[in-house]
Sequence to fold (451 residues):
Amino acid sequence: MNALPFFVVTLTHATWEEAVRCVEGLPSEAIPELRLDLFPDYEAPALVHSLARRCLVSCRRSEEGGRWEGTETERLARLLSALEARPVWLDLEWDIAPSEAIRQHGPHTRLLRSVHVPEGVFDLEARMDQLPEGDAYKWVGVASRLSENARLKPALARARNHGIQLSAFLMGPKGLPSRCLQRAWGGAFTFAAPDDGPPAAPGQLPFSTLWNWRLHRLNPNFALCGVLGEPVLHSRGPAYHNARFQRNFKDLLYLPLQTGDAQEACEAMEELGILGASLTAPLKATLPARLHLPGPLNTLWRRTPSEPWEGANTDAEALGQFVSSRPKGVVLILGDGGVAATSRVTLEGQGFTCIQASRRHPMTPGAIVSSAPVGVVQATSLGMDAADPAPFPELLEAALPSLRWAAEWIYKSDSAFAQWARIQELPLIEGAELFEAQAEAQARRFIEGCG
Fold:
């Protein structure tokens, strides 16, 4: 029996012509999923023929996130019509017995049996005891906490040990570990969004991202690292660290691990055996405190899951590297979160005097003028959205006559603060520069200290 390729790419394009162009660029390790419910105006056999039969055909009901609007009888008839073109795989729901008409296509078309369960339901082990007729199996749940991903590992290992083609993962941003660690945990395949189309389900990542992370090459020795915080799905960390792990032949995978709760983060680190973590807001102080480490920190690592955590603040190292040659004097820090605290400690350690302004601790323009700051550090969250304004514009205007340099922590977008600094021709420490410097220091800890 031929196995499903590891990557199943759901065709979610606005037009069928776009979908066909996407399929033409897929490697042999990927197979398209033809969702008949997404292309209702086309004859099913014609769609299969245009993909040269090499596809997984499905037709999703609305309760499973699909767009099928007809009756169940009509849906099954549409699936059966697709079989006339002999696709290599057909997705049939777990609770539906294959009809004789479907069985007759067995020599040409293999059956994937799938089930989507509600949030909070974990019946995979029980379902493994009574597998329906089929050639491969897909179980999909919903993640409400990061640690829940670990609940799928025993069933996936069991499937691998018994030669069963199974994919079991959780939807939503907190389900990313189960989607990405399928191969390492024993899963046979995983689902991806097309690079030029929207995701078909919450938490589905673009194919090129999963390909670049080499998820199809993971083995059971791979361990997990990641960035913990909220939001983190935009993070450049996975692209940065996974490339370095690969160059250094480390069996580590780095993922965005979204949670703003320190207790949830602690549970995930233990249940998933996480070996390295980058910390971002709001966890830089709260998570180290739960681990009895002095904070704020942005980097945690350990050799094995049974060893204690070590910590560092590579944000401080990066900022210190850039400000060491800047003119000394008073520095205005905007914000009062973890990044602001790190900035203050770092600057004062290098001989600067700091004043700080935030919504909770406002300053007047007159106080800024009398302080005559030589530098300003933007340490608020403004700029995470490209449409965000610059923070405290009246304070920036008051500080401008004495300013000789500026620093921006945001690296996601070209922030309004960074644009303001350039317009004023202030030497600017860019957020991207700070990110690269702190990430390089993190990578060194992960590569040398994890696994």
